[in-house]
Amino acid sequence: MSALLPQWKEYTVTLETLSPLHIGATRDVFTSIENSIVRLQNQAIVPSTTLKGAWRNQIERFLIGEYFDASKKEWRKAGVQPCIPGRASDDEKRILNDKQWVEAKKRVEIREYREYKEPCTYNKYGDPICPACYLLGAQTLLGFVRVPFLKLAEGQGRTDEELYSLRIDRETETGVEGANRSWYVVNEKIKFVGTLQVLQRDDLRHWTLGQARNLGARGKVDRWLDDPAWSAQTIYEKLIKGCLENIQVIGGFRSKDCGKVKITVTEK
Ligand SMILES: [Zn+2]
Q: 159-177: per-residue pLDDT in tens?
């Protein structure tokens, strides 16, 4: 094998639903169809974007918990601050998915709102890339992981078993089981599985997992890796396996107790 081929390591990611799961079929607030869920070949799936969003959120929580001194309001290490000010919080995302809010606003206002919520930019020399963007990517800069779509652990013919419908009472906004098949969810105790790929090294680009990248004219961008406490192994244990396995909810209808999950990551 050529030494110039990027070397990837593969992990199995398993997600089990602990409560009904709803992942809407579109993220576009302007064409939002409330009732459908994401499917591939008529089977429910967990899209990589959904998993990635939940993972990023978990990395942010981890970094704040580990490195932010709340009493002094300062970061204990350089470069570990996740680009949260540049990203929509869960509440903000909920607002962006609220049809009434969106309809009441002009498109330009929504665009401004969204553009404010962008991850690390690295436009200027010395702009740092945060640990979340190191792994998951920032704008056009690739990260070290390829996040998979999670598919049903057991193959075809499971649609009836995996799905049931909730009827939402408009007045109380609570979900009740019923014949009105207007809101689809994936049943609990359904397993989804996918293969996560983690780049170990790419000699062509001079990238090695656990080491800071030098992006030519933009200089060294991954300042947080100057801390010798970080290695490829600690990145895997804390940010990859640790954060993925700490994801507890995913998708929509959380106020209706939907989206509780258990995620496990194992070496292939
Ligand atoms: Zn970032």
A: 667 777 665 555 555 555 5
Structure tokens at 114: 């969204």
- Cα–Cα distance measured from residue 233 to residue 225, given in angstroms and rounded to the nearest whole number: 13
* Residue the block writes with tokens 């899209």: 47
Question: Which residue do the tokens 């709340």 mark?
Answer: 70
Cα(33) to centroid(ligand 1), Å: 30
- 23 alpha carbon, distance to own chain's centre: 13
User: Rounded to the nearest whole angstrom, what is the distance from the C-alpha of residue 39 to the centroid of ligand 1?
Assistant: 29
Tell me the CA–centroid distance for residue 161 and ligand 1, in Å: 39
Tens digits of residue pLDDT in 140-158: 788 999 999 999 987 556 6
Q: What pTM value is reported for the model?
A: 0.79
For residue 69, count other CB atoms closer than 10 A to its CB: 9
User: Does residue 205 contact residue 196 with C-beta atoms inside 8 Å?
Assistant: no
Residues flanking ion ligand 1, Cβ below 5 Å: 83, 119-120, 130, 133
